[in-house]
């Protein structure tokens, strides 16, 4: 049992405490997880709202992530998972509820201003520029910065070594899993304080999914909280410190990943028994 990432059943260790000396600090690194002084680090609190003038999609829905955590949002198709993420990122206006980042109410800010406040958001689709090279995509990711971005780019290449190898290739020529790495890397280029991922493993093979999850764990271990939506509920809950099951825009179940995986109700309704 010398591999720190696996337990004796071959499962990944879900704790995200940074083992001493392991790995270089990642973009947004803030050291070891500290307890939150006033509520979660990022919270979309009791959010109610929908798109434009349409009917409400979210009904008092709450999602949050704390420092040092991976929080995962799961639920059936159309449950409002992506909508909840978009609401936290400021892409739809809420009729009720609030979004707070590090204790500050940011509900009135535009998505771009939320990026400046430290949100890194990777949307589900159209999350890279296919005609630009990998390196150019990463440079575009740093658009809000006017300091030297080389160190951050090196950190992204350390996290995703294949991107260093393919840095001059058009991103559109990469495999699905590699494109997702570009998308996550782009978000990391802003040196965010929290990373939000909408279905980072959409359309990739189980092996690639596992690898992406490993990298996401590594990001979280570096001290950067990760809030993500996932279709692969069981696998995602296995790496989640906190899980939210949404149904029809409402919180149906909330708990640690482990608790939700063990909950007979959750198992029956969402995990196929
Ligand atoms: N841009 C939009 N304009 C209007 N309605 C939308 C828009 N995007 C999503 N919806 C509606 O909001 C509801 C929730 O969709 P959403 O994409 O948030 O669900 P989801 O849980 O992420 O589902 P999936 O797993 O299928 O992606 C659906 O009824 C959908 O039709």
TrEMBL record:
Residues 23-40 have a biased composition (Low complexity). Belongs to the ABC transporter superfamily. InterPro entries: AAA+_ATPase, ABC_transporter-like_ATP-bd, BCAA_Transport_ATP-bd_LivF, P-loop_NTPase. It comes from Roseivivax isoporae LMG 25204. Residues 1-15 have a biased composition (Basic and acidic residues). GO terms for molecular function: ATP binding; ATP hydrolysis activity; branched-chain amino acid transmembrane transporter activity. Residues 41-273 form the ABC transporter domain. CDD domains: ABC_TM1139_LivF_branched (cd03224). One of its GO terms (biological process) is L-amino acid transport. It comes from the Bacteria. Residues 1-41 are annotated as: Disordered. SUPFAM superfamilies: P-loop containing nucleoside triphosphate hydrolases (SSF52540). SMART domains: AAA. The lineage of its organism: Bacteria, Pseudomonadati, Pseudomonadota, Alphaproteobacteria, Rhodobacterales. This is Branched-chain amino acid ABC transporter ATPase. Keywords: Amino-acid transport, ATP-binding, Nucleotide-binding, Transport.
